[in-house]
Design brief:
CATH superfamily of chain A: STAS domain
CATH topology of the largest domain in chain B: Phosphatase 2c, domain 1
Strand order of the largest sheet of chain A: 1-2-3-4-5
CATH class of chain A: Alpha Beta
Distance between the termini of chain A: 27 Å
Oligomer: heterodimer
CATH architecture of the largest domain in chain B: 4-Layer Sandwich
Order of helices and strands of chain B: HHHEEEEEHHHEEEHHEEEEEEHHE
Strand order of the largest sheet of chain B: 2-1-5-4-3
Largest interface: A-B, 20 and 27 residues
Shape of chain A: globular
Order of helices and strands of chain A: EEHEHEHHEH
Largest sheet of chain A: 5 strands, mixed
Largest sheet of chain B: 5 strands, antiparallel
Distance between the termini of chain B: 91 Å
Number of helices of chain B: 10
Number of helices of chain A: 5
Shape of chain B: rod-shaped
Structural class of chain A: alpha/beta
Radius of gyration of chain B: 59 Å
Radius of gyration of chain A: 12 Å
Helix content of chain B: 40-55%
């Protein structure tokens, strides 16, 4: 898994590539925790190149979302597709988190 | 082969020989140069002395030479003829005080092409011409100049000596090369032997991974110090090796103990799973815990004479923590310990579970669950879903319009948020049908080509009729294993098949 963090005026964009699974989820969670500690309140997770996510990955997403919510922030997702979209919908995460088709749409809601 | 790729032995021999040869050549050049300069000066001095002797003998002829008559010239020639025994004198001349040539002398065979230069006014000096040495000397009589003598000598003696030096030098060079080679071959061993021995020892250690061997120190020099350091390094590696081996053994024992405990935990989870059923509701299952123990658990039981509860849950993550939570949830469902909960109402059961197991109080773990209640009288199944893959209902009747139905219902994973709402959905079971429940481990598998099996592909696989006579779950399990290319999975793999046959009486509960 690769993670790129980009800070813009409206949001912090976290691009995740590869697999978000048992091995990589702690890394993802820590990166998001760092971004939240630095004061981010609107984080856009770019998932267009995320190939796979399992329940451990969902857990890291949920924990990060809750941390951000505790700071009156929001965690939103962009570019969900394929198996990742399927898992997100199945677990009901699409109702817990806002999802957008594009980064522009997500940034417009910041 | 370049110098840098030669062996130590070759380098030492070559270096010694080159040094010897260069030193010898330098010494030879210095000596030859010195000797040639000496010969040059000696020849010049000899010529000057000779010129003075001839000059003194010619004063009689020169005193009368102003008239330049034949007798004077004859006397002068005879005087010069005295030079004939001197083979190195090529030519000679006597000049009168006015500069006129009184007599000349040419060595036999050298008269042609040998010219006599005009006399030099400054008297005594050397002049080098091509391959010769020339001398002009004023001739004095009673303190007054009466003429000049000119002598020209070849350098053959010097060239002969140079040739002899060349031959002797080449011979000395060959001999010294031979001797230095023999000495170098013998003496280089003092340096090369310990280095070669060290190199061989290092190679043996590397190839055999035997850190008990040691290199032998031959001398107390820098190479000896290197060998001591090498041996010390081997000792340290050996000690670390032993410590690492002991640590590995301890870790292996600890790992075996942990694996044994994980196996016992998996056995315990398996022992809590329900027995297989026959009759109006037939139930079979397959459960393959992952090596790290997952959080799958499932069960089914009659709630009353008409209603049959079915559930499958999956705690996120792996390990004992996930297994403990799954056992706790299953226990609450089996023993009906959720407060004020109607276990015939799936949505109410999920709401109660969500309140009872918030992730903040259970190791930040949530779980998915599908809970359904089949009513044999109404021939209907009511169900609710908390983020779990929807079970698949496959009807047996060929005339039934819908053969494969996904029992979907909206719902979020349990424990994620408080006060989540779940809804009941229902499905009529009018004909004999097979209900398949499974955990995500059954379809979230990697195929041999590295791609992932999708849920849709898994459903198609599940609905495929079994042609070999193999039990449905065995066939499905085998298909997934074949696609995965392995018999082990990263996650727990649970599959339940419930055969619902409305035409049959209820079985024993």
């Amino acid at each position: 898994m690769d993670i790129d963090v980009t800070t813009t005026a409206q949001a912090v964009i976290v691009a995740v590539r590869g697999r978000l699974d048992t091995t990589s989820a702690p890394v993802f969670e820590q990166r998001l925790a760092d971004v939240i500690t630095q004061g981010a309140t609107y984080i856009v997770v770019q998932c267009s190149e995320l190939a796979y996510i399992n329940s451990v990955g969902l857990r890291s997403v949920l924990i990060s979302g809750k941390k951000l919510q505790a700071q009156q922030g929001r965690l939103v997702f962009v570019g969900l597709q394929g198996i990742v979209q399927e898992v997100f919908d199945m677990a009901g995460f699409s109702t817990l988190f806002q999802t957008f088709a594009s980064e522009d749409a997500a940034l417009a809601q910041s | 082969m370049t110098l840098r790729h030669m062996s130590i032995k070759q380098k030492l021999i070559l270096t010694t020989m080159l040094t010897t040869c260069v030193a010898l050549l330098l010494v030879t050049v210095v000596f030859v140069t010195y000797d040639l300069l000496t010969i040059w000066r000696t020849t010049g001095d000899d010529l000057v002395a000779l010129a003075q002797i001839i000059g003194r003998n010619s004063t009689a002829a020169l005193d009368l030479a102003e008239t330049l008559d034949f007798a004077d010239q004859q006397l002068a020639r005879e005087t010069l003829e005295a030079l004939r025994p001197r083979q190195n004198v090529v030519s000679a001349a006597l000049y009168t005080v006015s500069g006129a040539v009184l007599a000349t002398y040419h060595r036999d065979g050298m008269s042609q092409g040998s010219t006599i230069p005009p006399p030099q006014p400054d008297g005594y000096h050397f002049r080098v011409r091509a391959n010769s040495l020339a001398v002009f000397q004023k001739i004095l009589h009673a303190g007054e100049p009466v003429g000049t003598i000119y002598l020209q000598s070849d350098l053959q003696a010097m060239y002969d000596r140079l040739k002899r030096y060349g031959l002797l030098g080449a011979l000395a060079l060959l001999m010294s090369m031979g001797v230095s080679f023999l000495l170098a071959v013998r003496l280089q061993r003092v340096i090369s032997l310990p280095i070669l021995h060290l190199a061989q020892t290092a190679k043996d250690v590397s190839e055999k991974r035997d850190y008990t061997v040691r290199a032998v120190r031959y001398h107390k020099d820098e190479v000896g110090l290197l060998i001591d350091s090498f041996n010390e390094m081997l000792t340290q590696i050996q000690e670390r090796d032993v410590a690492l081996l002991a640590s590995n053994q301890a870790l292996t024992e600890q790992q075996n103990l942990l694996l044994q405990e994980l196996t016992e935990a998996a056995d315990y989870v398996t022992s809590l799973l329900p027995p297989q059923l026959t009759g109006a509701v037939q139930a079979t299952w397959k459960f393959l815990p992952s090596a790290r123990l997952g959080g799958d658990a499932f069960g089914y039981h009659w709630l009353n004479a008409e209603q049959f509860a079915i559930y499958l849950l999956d705690v996120c993550g792996h390990g004992v923590g996930a297994a403990l939570l799954s056992v706790a949830v299953m226990d609450a469902l089996r023993s009906h310990t959720l407060p004020d909960t109607d276990f015939c109402n799936p949505a109410a059961v999920l709401r109660a579970l969500n309140m009872a197991f918030p992730m903040e109080e259970h190791g930040e773990m949530f779980f998915t669950i599908w809970y359904g209640v089949y009513n044999q009288s109404t021939q209907q199944i009511v169900y609710a879903n908390g983020g779990h893959p929807p079970p698949i209902l496959v009807t047996d009747a060929p005339t039934h319009p819908e053969k494969v139905i996904q029992l979907k219902a909206p719902g979020v994973v349990l424990g994620a948020m408080p006060d989540l709402q779940y809804v009941n959905a229902c499905c009529d079971i009018k004909v004999r049908s097979k209900l398949y429940l499974f955990s995500d481990g059954a379809f979230e598998v990697t195929r041999t080509d590295g791609t992932f099996l999708t849920f849709t592909e898994f459903v198609a696989l599940l609905a495929r009729p079994s042609l070999s006579g193999m039990a449905d779950l065995d066939r499905l399990f085998q298909d997934v294993q074949t696609l995965h290319g392995s018999q082990t999975f990263d996650d727990d793999l649970s599959m339940i098949q419930i055969v619902l046959d409305p035409g049959l009486e209820r079985g024993p509960c």
